[in-house]
Description:
Layout: H1 3-24, H2 28-51, H3 57-75, H4 80-111
The structure holds fe (ii) ion.
Fe (ii) ion is lined by residues 45, 60, 64, 94, 98-99.
Amino acid sequence: MTIYGQFCVIIDEEHAFLLEKIQEMETTLDFSVVVAYFKDHFEQEEKIMKDSGYPQYDGHKTEHLNMFVRLISMEARSGVEHLRELLKDILEQHVHTHDMLLLKHLKQQATT
Length: 112
Ligand SMILES: [Fe+2]
């Protein structure tokens, strides 16, 4: 599978998986598990960015780090309902901005 194909799978399947896990969260312990899934997911994306020579690698990686720090800081002061909404918002906003730019880059690479 091409890097573009791999990322399409990540966009479709992993983001759906993350959303499913967010929906299933019932306790703050579940929140910690979901944050660990996010971390794995970010690492996979970062590998794809690196392998494809993505010029926005540093910015996208910094955005992942910022999201991770934000998730960790939310844990101590929020109820599960609130955490669920925040996680969904953070994920959707990221996918529709940074991940879409990466997808565009990989698609361009695949067709040239
Ligand atoms: Fe990302």
